[in-house]
Amino acid sequence: MSFTHPDGLTLYGDLFSQPVRAIHAFLTLNKVPFTFKHVDLMGGENKSDWYLENIHPQGKMPAIIDKSSKGLYTLFESHAILRYVTHKYPSLVPEHWYPTDPVARARVDQYLDWHHSNMRQGCTYFLVYKYLVPSIMRKINGKDYKESDFEAYQRENNRKLMHYALKQIETFWLKPNSTSPKLSLIQSPPHTKFDSPYSHLTIADLSSACEIAQVWLLDPEEMDLERKYPLTYKWVTSVVGIKEVAEVQEEFLRKNKMKTPGTIKRQKEEQAKL
């Protein structure tokens, strides 16, 4: 594939990736003009020469290319991209997504740093070892796949990490706002004006909720949010029920031919109540 970059901000990735979905939803929600270039993750396109040479030297996603006064430049790491967009497009992106208040901003950054080795690692690698590895191995071997002891250990270890992180979301991150009708990971600064259904949210909420929703959509019985983590359930449904966020989740399911009857519909219904 030859590399030709379109004008304006371009997002490279596959909606199979949670961070790609979070950024896609964020750009769409805030009406930031962008072009989406699909990179086939399952087909290994992210490891092709054109991608490694022009987009990301490690073959990861998401990544963006944008223009500055000095020409084109590439940026990767999802949280860096989310921060960048809030700085680059202040007339489009409301301040609540990445507050200018130093304490509120530090708390957003605190969550974003915590997220990588807790919520993301637990959720992602639980799904990798429960679904992705068996799927790939069945295609390679063309026969029934038997999980190895190492794979079983990794799956269980990350399942435990995922539930540990969910408990932290429930009892630490959300608890200070538990009496508020507008739940968020970061407590809003005093006198915040809630002028939209999601003006209490930050980029930390979007990144985290999309991560949790991926497991919830694919394995709702394992996560069991409504029963085990009621605050988290209320918060996740409010975030993932936002129209632009729900649409990108639905597109992910459609492209991968997955069905989760009623789950996204319920998220939208919860958001409509706010």
From TrEMBL:
InterPro entries in alphabetical order: Glutathione-S-Trfase_C-like, Glutathione-S-Trfase_C_sf, Glutathione_S-Trfase, Glutathione_S-Trfase_N, GST_Theta, Thioredoxin-like_sf
Entry keyword Transmembrane: no
Coiled-coil portions: none
Chief site of localization: cytoplasm
Gene Ontology terms for molecular function: glutathione transferase activity
PANTHER family (UniProt xref): GH16740P-RELATED, PTHR43917
Name the UniProt record assigns to this protein: Glutathione S-transferase
Organism annotation: Halteria grandinella
